Amino acid sequence: MDVSFRKIDIDQYDEDALLVTELYEADPRDPAQALNDVKQKAAAVRSSLAKGDIVAALMLVLEDAPYGPHLDDAKVASLCANLHLQTLVSILNSTKSSEIPGVVKALSTDAQDTLMKYLYKGMALPGWGDVSGSVLLGWHEKLTEVAGTGCIVRAMTDRRLV
Amino acid sequence: MAPPEVFSLSQQTPVTCHAFNADRTQLAVSLNSSDVLIYAREGNDWKHIDTLSEHDKPVTSIDWAPQSNRIVTSAQDRNAYVWQQTPDPQTGHTVWKPTLVLLRINRAATYVRWSPNEDKFAVASGARAIAICSFDPEGDWWVSRLLKKPIRSTVLSVDWHPNNVLLAAGGVDMKARVFSAYIKDVDKRPGPSVWGEKLPFNTICGEYASPAGGWVHDVAFSPSGDVLAFASHDSSISVVYPGGPAVHVIKLSILPLVTLAWTTEESIVAAGHDCQPLVFAGNQGGWEIIGSLDDPHANKASGGSRSGFGGASPVGRLNSAAFNTFRNAAERGISNVPGSPTASSSNESELFTIHQNTITSVRPYDGVPGNVTRVSTSGVDGKLVVWDVNAVTPIGATGLAGKLGKMQLR
């Protein structure tokens, strides 16, 4: 059976088509400012990690995380998002697996949801940077035990992609 | 604290929707087909007595007006019918006679509800519109006016305000809205309420986004009409006080809720993909989850051996034998192929809850608005269950665990 008709983009004939950008409110910061924020946070996170305060470091990263593609300046936006992911991964990698449950419990629900989004983003980038699948899966397991399947559902529905 | 009444209406097919008549002696359901089946209560069972066949695509929603005893149905064939009992001229028997409604929509009709005065009904649709239908005595038909702006996608549910004018709607564009559905020839001018004072047709009285971008599955006004609750696919339930203005959001640790009903001004029963009705309570100061009407531990206490290798109890629906089967296969290389000698009993994939699949509809069953004492639920497992809303099992005991019902003010 010919199923190529399924691939026709019917929205192009619809003058009132719903665009992806209308589905969520864009990150209010402009890309340069977001990049600046991310760089500052990376520095703050390093000092928190040096003190061994993982919860504080995670909270820093997960609060006001940059999201969404900035259509006008995609290059800066992706640089920004990747740098932020790198910062987050550095925290994840430096946490002992026995400490994870306590850290996860200390986070707010919003922070847990954002962390889940980053875990999935990390898993979507195999072999990127020093992202290790087993570390991500370990965090995913502990996070799901604490925050439940609801947290995974929110990571999937939310269009404010990190 | 009566135990829930459980009826299996079908073994294989889902119950798309259900509606009772005024005295709960008859029941209209659709079993995922284009027919509406009418059942009559016989002792402890439901007997099939009539079939309403006029739609030619699956029925999506049914509502039964309690006072005027009329049924309205909507379906994927883009039509709605109003069914009225009239004597058949040939046989003299009373039959359900359909009247077609001119909806003027070009996509499926998804949801239908009578207004409180039963002189209007609202049909939600995939055509980014809600048809508000009223009876035109001159033409002897139901005519519709469309609520269109600013709906951007399929509307999944609607609910009427007790004043017969305001309508809440929620849908795929991730917003819950309150509209005015004022029809000049039908309605008296409504008094001012928390939602506004002047209310011409299609006035937007409120627009609320779901917290994390989930489809709004169900909306409902509180009995007074002053509060709006909606459940969305980001596993959350939001309660809106427009006067406050305050929105209380409860993010859940379980799978999303898809249907909800107010039982009193300060409590809600909601259900969905987690297969059990949950009870929420609160007021303008805040809302929290109280517990579940289902008690998964009591139900299956004698359920025999469950392959329980895992010591830690996972959350929600993960706590099923199906999940354990895959986990055993992945972690220990044990594969329980159905039919193989190692496979355990056939009820191995049974859930601990009474409903064995997603609950798609919860509706008031007994009591008056503002003091509902029993609710009915139906779902994909083909079951219809009537629950006592006061028989609440606290969440600690239901195994939902974790930080369920953590609440915050937005």
UniProtKB/TrEMBL annotation, chain A:
Q: Where in the cell is it found?
A: Cytoplasm, Cytoskeleton
Instruction: State the Gene Ontology BP annotations.
Output: actin cortical patch organization; Arp2/3 complex-mediated actin nucleation; regulation of actin filament polymerization
Keywords linked to the UniProt accession = Cytoplasm, Cytoskeleton
Major location category of this protein: cytoplasm
Which GO CC terms are listed, alphabetically? Arp2/3 protein complex
Q: Which Pfam family, an example, fits this chain?
A: P16-Arc
* SUPFAM superfamilies (alphabetical): Arp2/3 complex 16 kDa subunit ARPC5
Superkingdom classification of source: Eukaryota
Q: Which InterPro entries match?
A: ARPC5, ARPC5_sf
Q: Which family does it belong to?
A: Belongs to the ARPC5 family.
Name the job this protein performs: Functions as a component of the Arp2/3 complex which is involved in regulation of actin polymerization and together with an activating nucleation-promoting factor (NPF) mediates the formation of branched actin networks.
Q: What is this protein called?
A: Actin-related protein 2/3 complex subunit 5
Originating organism: Pycnoporus cinnabarinus
Task: Name the lineage.
Answer: Eukaryota, Fungi, Dikarya, Basidiomycota, Agaricomycotina
From TrEMBL, chain B:
Give a GO biological-process term.
Arp2/3 complex-mediated actin nucleation
GO MF annotations for this entry? actin filament binding
Q: Where in the cell is it found?
A: Cytoplasm, Cytoskeleton, Actin patch
Protein name per its UniProtKB record? Actin-related protein 2/3 complex subunit
Principal location listed in the UniProt entry: cytoplasm
Query: Can you quote a single GO CC term?
Result: actin cortical patch
**Of which family is this protein a member?**
Belongs to the WD repeat ARPC1 family.
Q: Which UniProt keywords apply?
A: Actin-binding, Cytoplasm, Cytoskeleton, Repeat, WD repeat
Gene3D superfamilies for the chain = YVTN repeat-like/Quinoprotein amine dehydrogenase (2.130.10.10)
Q: What does this protein do?
A: Functions as component of the Arp2/3 complex which is involved in regulation of actin polymerization and together with an activating nucleation-promoting factor (NPF) mediates the formation of branched actin networks.
WD repeat ranges per the UniProt record = 52-84
Pfam families given in the database record: WD40
